[in-house]
Amino acid sequence: PYTDRDGNYVTTGSPVAWTAGYWPGMMWLMYNETKKECFKIAAEKQEKILIFLKKYTQNPLTKPIRPLRIL
Prior knowledge:
- This protein is mainly α.
- It is built from two helices and two strands.
- Strand 1 and strand 2 form a beta hairpin.
- The protein is elongated.
- The protein starts with a strand and ends in a 16-residue tail after the last helix.
- Mean pLDDT is 75; it is low at 64-71.
């Protein structure tokens, strides 16, 4: 959940909103405490998804951008 630009409380939102980083962050904390590879793997997988989404999204609250075509 987050608060949008107009101050409305939103319970579902963009997969690239700041809250999307919460889960991988928790996985990194669990890995640091336990050194269990399952937490490291989960964190890395989520980070790859977030990096992909960030690359193809101009703003978490707007539609994805299209790649520019240079003629």
